[in-house]
């Protein structure tokens, strides 16, 4: 309350709380420390799972390298050269120890360092994830807010129907559908293939459009539903009713107070969506022939390239851990109670 007895607007109070939170970073340090330790533990468990799963698959790198007509002696020599004759526990400890030293191993098929292979493809995946995130936010957030603003009207029904369609349709189905549609309507448009941004900006954007839509449209459906639900809850709060009673239009009250106060759950979902984009990229990159981490993961898995597959799985896990940490920090800055309760 002000000295005059007037209530402080929620948006102003939240901004003040955010300023105090930024000014008092030390309380965030224990919260961040707990989250980082949790993330390290998750990555450790994931390393065990990744190591074990790839070895549970039928076949070994020695089988692929030796070929179907090799003799037992040749296979045994390849197994020994690759260190696959050691006990599994020893293999895991050697791999883990090398990673701590920055050595992720070499691909058994082309001899290139695993880290080099990943760094060659990582920019393409990050570019795709960023473009898909922009697509999902550009349609999901305004559509959800507009649906809540006109609850029960035609736009609300259209937005909910579009969101339901996006949630019910797998991303690879969107990808294949877009390829068929664009190939029919615009045969000259590059529907499959990818040109790096450093080679040709325009062709890069052309090749990026369809996969970004295939990833962003379904994920934006989740943002749309969360934004609509969050905004409807905000409309039921007393402060927004007070704003409407003082003469502000519903749109003005939404822009001044509603969007900011409804942003907490949406920020959380958007951050988790960005982490999930990298996982969904495994499907989309193979549909659109994009040389990214997803395509590298599938290729190395089929080739039984243990070192590359394990590194790709850990990278995907690292993305989830980092994005969860970023989401927690941003959410705790928006709502200080989050950091205090964890």
TrEMBL record:
Family stated for the protein in its record: Belongs to the binding-protein-dependent transport system permease family.
InterPro entries assigned to the protein according to its UniProt record, in alphabetical order: BPD_transp_1_N, MetI-like, MetI-like_sf
Protein name according to UniProt: ABC transporter permease
Superkingdom, taxonomy of origin: Bacteria
Matching Pfam families: BPD_transp_1, BPD_transp_1_N
Domain ABC transmembrane type-1: residue ranges: 122-331
Keywords of this entry: Cell membrane, Membrane, Transmembrane, Transmembrane helix, Transport
Membrane topology: Multi-pass membrane protein
Subcellular location: Cell membrane
Stretches that traverse the bilayer: 36-57, 128-150, 162-185, 205-224, 311-334
Gene3D superfamilies: MetI-like (1.10.3720.10)
């Amino acid at each position: 309350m002000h000295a005059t007895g007037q209530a402080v607007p929620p948006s102003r109070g939240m901004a003040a709380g955010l300023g105090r939170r930024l000014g008092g970073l030390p309380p965030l340090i224990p919260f961040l420390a707990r989250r980082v330790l949790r993330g390290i533990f998750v990555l450790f468990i994931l390393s065990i799972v990744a190591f074990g799963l790839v070895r549970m698959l039928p076949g070994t790198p020695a089988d692929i390298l030796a070929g179907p007509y090799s003799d037992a002696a040749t296979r045994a020599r390849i197994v020994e050269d690759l260190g696959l004759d050691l006990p599994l526990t020893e293999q895991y400890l050697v791999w883990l120890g090398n990673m701590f030293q920055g050595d992720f191993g070499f691909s058994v098929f082309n001899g290139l360092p695993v880290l080099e292979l990943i760094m060659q493809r990582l920019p393409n995946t990050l570019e795709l994830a960023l473009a898909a995130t922009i697509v999902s936010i550009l349609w999901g957030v305004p559509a959800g807010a507009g649906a809540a603003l006109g609850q029960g009207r035609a736009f609300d029904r259209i937005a909910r129907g579009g969101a339901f369609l996006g949630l019910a349709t797998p991303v690879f189905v969107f990808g294949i559908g877009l390829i068929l549609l664009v190939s029919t309507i615009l045969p000259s448009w590059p529907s499959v293939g990818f040109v790096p941004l450093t080679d040709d900006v325009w062709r890069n954007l052309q090749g990026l459009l369809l996969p970004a839509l295939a990833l962003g449209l379904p994920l934006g459906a989740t943002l749309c539903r969360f934004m609509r639900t969050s905004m409807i809850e905000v409309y039921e709060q007393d402060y927004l009713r007070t704003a409407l009673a003082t003469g502000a239009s519903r749109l003005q009250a939404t822009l001044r107070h509603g969007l900011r106060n409804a942003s907490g759950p949406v920020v959380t979902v958007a951050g988790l969506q960005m982490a999930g984009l990298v996982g969904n990229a495994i499907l989309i990159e193979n549909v659109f022939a994009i040389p990214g981490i997803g395509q590298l993961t599938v290729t190395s898995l089929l080739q039984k390239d243990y070192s590359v597959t394990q590194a790709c799985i850990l990278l995907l896990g690292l993305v989830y851990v980092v994005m969860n940490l970023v989401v927690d920090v941003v959410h705790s800055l928006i709502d200080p109670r989050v950091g205090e309760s964890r």
